[in-house]
Amino acid sequence: MKIIVNKYEKKDINEMKNIWNEVVRDGNAFPQIEELTEVSAANFFDEQSFCGVAKDSESNIIVGLYILHPNNVGRCGHISNASFAVSSSVRGYGVGEILVKHCIEQARKLGFKILQFNAVVKSNTAALKLYKKLGFIQLGIIPNGFLLPNGTYEDIIPHYISL
């Protein structure tokens, strides 16, 4: 599998929506509860500063994506935020790392100075390991900051990296 990442195109929306919704249904990474429809997905992805789509260049199948946008406005508008979704069929094959590295470069190109993740769920050990490997700094722990599908709460660990 050879992964290439490019800016999303309108024709990618349905596959992007399906991968995004898979992560939403898993219920252990994204804060969203509602799944995207094709219409809401088109609006959601279009609102971002950048959306990167990872494709297997051999099959031309989308295997992951990320969204990049400002984390805040005004005096904090130089801080970006991103979310990553990888198809369960390819998790553990390095797609997430490729997406995060691409995102860091895009954030720099867009003039952001910091990339911050507000809510990395403590049980998301693959993400925590990757962010450490890539040099992200943990900011502490927010106890019970994430509602799991079973009604219990999990700690979240904000991270950042200077760009």
TrEMBL record:
Domain N-acetyltransferase, first and last residues per copy: 3-160
Domain of life: Bacteria
Transmembrane segments: none
Keywords: Transferase
Pfam families from the UniProt entry: Acetyltransf_1
A Gene Ontology molecular function term of the record: acyltransferase activity, transferring groups other than amino-acyl groups
UniProt-recorded name of the protein: N-acetyltransferase GCN5
Organism the protein comes from: Monoglobus pectinilyticus
